[in-house]
Amino acid sequence: MKGNVIVLNGTSSSGKTTLARAFQAQSTEVYLLCALDAFWDMTPYKIPAGSKNFPNMKLALAKSVQALAETGHNVIVDIVFCGEKTYRELTNELSGLKLTLVKVDCPLDELTKREAARGDRAIGLAKSQHESIHQGVLYDLTIDTLINSPTQCAQKIINYLL
Amino acid sequence: MKGNVIVLNGTSSSGKTTLARAFQAQSTEVYLLCALDAFWDMTPYKIPAGSKNFPNMKLALAKSVQALAETGHNVIVDIVFCGEKTYRELTNELSGLKLTLVKVDCPLDELTKREAARGDRAIGLAKSQHESIHQGVLYDLTIDTLINSPTQCAQKIINYLL
Amino acid sequence: MKGNVIVLNGTSSSGKTTLARAFQAQSTEVYLLCALDAFWDMTPYKIPAGSKNFPNMKLALAKSVQALAETGHNVIVDIVFCGEKTYRELTNELSGLKLTLVKVDCPLDELTKREAARGDRAIGLAKSQHESIHQGVLYDLTIDTLINSPTQCAQKIINYLL
Amino acid sequence: MKGNVIVLNGTSSSGKTTLARAFQAQSTEVYLLCALDAFWDMTPYKIPAGSKNFPNMKLALAKSVQALAETGHNVIVDIVFCGEKTYRELTNELSGLKLTLVKVDCPLDELTKREAARGDRAIGLAKSQHESIHQGVLYDLTIDTLINSPTQCAQKIINYLL
Questions:
Q1: Whose CA is closest to A82, among A50, A34, A47?
Q2: For residues B150 and D149, is the Cβ–Cβ distance under 8 A?
Q3: Which residue of B has its CA nearest to D22?
Q4: Where are the alpha helices (DSSP H) in chain D?
Q5: Which of B98-135 are b and which e, b meaning 16 or more Cβ less than 10 Å from the residue's Cβ?
Q6: ipTM of the prediction
Q7: What is the reported pLDDT for B119?
Q8: Predicted pLDDT at D78
């Protein structure tokens, strides 16, 4: 039996990974976390990761999520869309699966503070993504990570899926 | 155009990841590192990772490697086989691709010392895998990580592929 | 000129490190983060870290904070007290410095959820510390990490120091 | 009773940390690993770590090693000297302790390959340190990490201490 797929789309530092790990911990169903960051970790260190140098990586991710679901795993995806292009690739590759699209939202000034505090992300990255990543994307659910704790955000997804 | 695939099979602590990163650094061709450990990282923390709880994970990995190669990426795979079962899954899923199978070898007493020094692996894990993982597997190349440095091991794979 | 010292005492998973990194990012003064976890990382992997096997480690930490402050660095300390014993060691070693003691608080059921989501802490650790670590400790400030975001918590410390 | 101190001085990527962890694993005596990298991790992410921005950090490290030894811990130090200045600070602060100074050596072209493979160090860092860090330093022991495995290097230190 094929698995279900939840997709979290939000800027860098919007709290997607923390939310996904909280969801895995609180859900009674078993979900695998498929993160775009894990795909960027695959690249040789001598070549900067990113869609510029690896334009097919998000398509490969979509096909890998299909592979995970096809072999019976539920999947929660942690990704930053290239707007409508990624939306089309994902919905196209994952047609036939139960797919839930979640917008992970956070005000820009909070994103900037988180970016400075975590130290492993380029300053300005969240801002550069803030405008474009949601363009042309239809969501099932929107979650605000400023006014909800990770625990509360995870519960909102669980409630939606009931 | 489809990518090529190199598969490194060896026990825990045999030096596969260090070898794969050295290969990526020294190779003029771009290769992505697809590691079994990254698949185990996908699982919820509350469920112990491993083939017992996730019996289809290595098949999902094989299909994901196919997805990466199909979208034009060369891939170096860092994996511990469940012997002939994984060998069959990989060769079956990746038929039609140029596939190079590398045995990553290291004496057991050296494995035990490395295991103790790295601290992030269960003591005895390498020993438990040592007998079974190579059963029924046909290799193109065998590399010994005790008598060769990672730099030298990577060069041996590069020379083989020429 | 000697540095100032802020001490964060709270259970595992109460959010001390995230708060300390947010404080470093938002403060106009330069602070070094001295974390108990970094001291446990010093131990050989073959010996379980903790006060049982290393009973003098928190005293060594207190003396190291003194060494950092004496060489001109402000320090924010991220630690789990052994109750009054650690309180006495710290206040004794750091007498003569400007010392601010902060209680990092979080309800137990939230701690338990965070513990499960992060995956790198033993389940039950926060609960085991919850009762004892604040015994006999006099605080300058108490901060609740459930009702305040890390950004807000950091601002509260900055406001207190003004 | 005061602890003994071993100091490993070598360039970035010369293999100091791997050697220190192997030593901890193989030694029958308990040693704590005090690494310069852990001190750089203390700094706010918004300020580049290094001796330029934190000129007293290696002196603070020397005093912290003294604090660890004074509280009964043996210590193995993993550090990159600012040549004779660090040598003087360490020997001055640690006078009265049993101190063993180890030169960790590796040819420059191997360092460059390792640097590229590990991906978490600036390219050229090892080269920039190669000339200067050993100036004016008197060693008890020199170890070559190209011709010896980490296991063998650790054994050489153990043999020296007997």
A1: A50
A2: no
A3: B117
A4: 16-26, 36-40, 57-70, 83-93, 108-118, 125-130, 150-161
A5: ebbbbbbbbeeebbbbbbbbbeeeeeebbeebbeebbe
A6: 0.95
A7: 83
A8: 98
Task: List chain A residues with CB under 8 Å of B45.
Answer: 21, 24-25
Question: Quick check: C117 and A146 CB within 8 A?
Answer: no
Which pTM value belongs to this model? 0.93
| Distance (Å, whole) CA B5 – CA C92 | 61
Residue for token pair 């010996």: C47
Q: How far is Cα B95 from Cα B97, in angstroms, rounded to an integer?
A: 5
Question: Residue B118 is inside which H or E element, if any?
Answer: helix B108-118
Q: Given the DSSP bridges, would you call strands D74-79 and D99-105 parallel, antiparallel or unpaired?
A: unpaired
Sign of the C-alpha dihedral, residues A11, A79, C113, C55? negative
**Residues C138, C76, A15: CA angle, nearest 5 degrees:** 110
Cα separation of A21 and C101, whole Å? Answer: 31
Please name the residue ranges forming H helices in A12-143: 16-26, 36-40, 57-70, 83-93, 108-118, 125-130
Taking only the tens of pLDDT, chain A with its 162 residues reads 899 999 999 999 999 999 999 999 999 999 999 999 999 999 999 999 999 999 999 999 999 999 999 999 999 999 999 989 999 999 999 999 999 999 999 999 999 999 999 888 888 999 999 989 999 999 999 999 999 999 999 999 999 999
d(CA B32, CA A122): 23
φ and ψ at residue A96, rounded to 5 degrees: 100, -10
Q: Rounded to the nearest 5°, which phi and psi values hold at B118?
A: -85, -30
pLDDT in tens, B42-99: 999 999 999 999 999 999 999 999 999 999 999 999 999 998 999 999 999 999 999 9
DSSP string, chain C: -PPPEEEEE--TTSSHHHHHHHHHHH-SS-EEEEEHHHHHTTS-TTS--STTT-TTHHHHHHHHHHHHHHTT-EEEEEE---HHHHHHHHHHHTTTS-EEEEEEE--HHHHHHHHHHH-SS-TTHHHHHHTTTTTT---SEEEETTTS-HHHHHHHHHHHH-
Contacts of D116 in chain A (CB under 8 A): 45-46
Q: What pLDDT, on the 0 to 100 scale, is given for residue A121?
A: 87
Chain B adjacent subunits, 3+ CB pairs under 8 A? A, C, D
pLDDT the model gives residue A91 = 97
Q: With 90 as the cut, is the pLDDT of residue C17 above it?
A: yes
Distance between start and end Cα atoms, chain A: 19
Inter-axis angle of helices B57-70 and A57-70, to 10 degrees? 150
Q: Which of B40, B41, B42, B45 to mutate to test the interface with C (most CBs of C within 10 A)?
A: B45
Interface probe, candidates A110, A148, A149, chain C, greatest C C-beta count within 10 A = A149
- What residues pair up with C148 in beta bridges, in sequence order? none
Contact C24 A117 (CB under 8 A): yes
